[in-house]
Each structure stands twice: as structure tokens, then as C-alpha cells.
Amino acid sequence: MSELSTLARPYAEAVFRLAQGENDLAGWSARVQSLALIVADAQVARLIADPAVASERVAELVIEVAGADLGEHGANFIKVLAENDRLPLLPEISGQFETLKASAEGTLEATITSAQELTQAQIDDLVAGLKAKFNRAVNVQVAVDAELIGGAVIAIGDQVMDGSVKGRLQRMSFALQG
Questions:
Q1: Cα distance between residue 44 and residue 168, in whole Å
Q2: DSSP the chain
Q3: Whose CA is closest to 107, among 44, 33, 29, 7?
Q4: Are 111 and 155 in contact (CB under 8 A)?
């Protein structure tokens, strides 16, 4: 995982600087996310991994599937990734781009995973608490994981706040064993 992150970082930073220069963070965000979905497709991934298929051909295919919205700079970005055998990094590049974008916009990306479906009021309360704690706007994604038994886990970057029953039981187990 850290190797992918390290390999993807310069590309994410380069496309982020390009997006800033064009004053089009939102547009580039959509492009990079779309490209990440394209290369994550099983058929496209097989073509990328096939040594018999030239990287130029794979780049042409990705550019064609992405469509006209990709633009000249986007097409060049794909060509560079293909030439360097880095197309499989696009999902990681997309994630890092979103982190850079959120930081530039003064927002935080948070994932709230709860044991049960949360109501909108509960989500709003959690977001308000996170805004107060971090003094920044917060964008959240909500997921459900029944294995948590109860409570929730909130992840913001590399910070994790585990208020789940499962987490509490694990901490109690470690304390009793230690």
C-alpha cells in the first residue's frame, strides 16, 4: 500500500498543480475519478497488464473511453502514465488528488462507518462536532458495517476515532491480556 502511495504521489501532485493552474479543481477531480473507474474495470485492467498490448494502444483506449471532456492535458496525462506503466495507479492518484483538493479548499474528508444506518440528523450532529473539533468544513461518506456491533468509527486522513462496541471490546481484551 505505501509503495503504491509513494509511486502515485508525484503524479497526483502534478495533476493537482495543473488543475490549480487552470483554476479547475472540480473539473479535474471529476476527470481523475472517471479515469480511475475506467482503469479499474476488469477488461481494461487485463489489457493494461497484457504485455502483448502496447502502452500507446492502451492509452488510446482509455482516452477514447474517457471522451472529449478529458481534453488535451488529460490525454497527455494518460499518455505519460501509460509510457511509465503507471495506469494502474490511477485509483491511488485519484485518492491523493482528492486529499490535496480538500486541503486546498480547507475541507476535510471523513468516513463515518456505523453499525446501523444513521439518520440524517445523526449525520448532521457528527459533522457539526467534527467541524467544531477541526475548525474546518467536513465532507463525509457514510458506510454501514454490522460487525461493529454498535457505535461508529470515524476516519479522517490517518486519524481514526473508534467509538464502536467492537473496538471497545478489543481494547478491553488487550488490557486484560496485558
A1: 42
A2: -HHHHHHHHHHHHHHHHHHHHTT-HHHHHHHHHHHHHHHHSHHHHHHHH-TTS-HHHHHHHHHHHH-GGGHHHHHHHHHHHHHTT-GGGHHHHHHHHHHHHHHHHTEEEEEEEESSPPPHHHHHHHHHHHHHHHTSEEEEEEEE-GGG-SSEEEEETTEEEE--HHHHHHHHHHHHH-
A3: 29
A4: yes
Q: Determine the Cα–Cα distance for residues 59 and 78; give it in Å rounded to an integer.
A: 6
* Residue given cell 467509538 in the structure block: 163
Q: For 56, what's the count of Cα atoms within 13 Å in the CB-facing half-sphere?
A: 0
pTM, whole model, 2 decimals? 0.69
Which residue do the cell numbers 479535474 mark? 28
pLDDT tens by residue, 105-117: 888 889 999 999 9
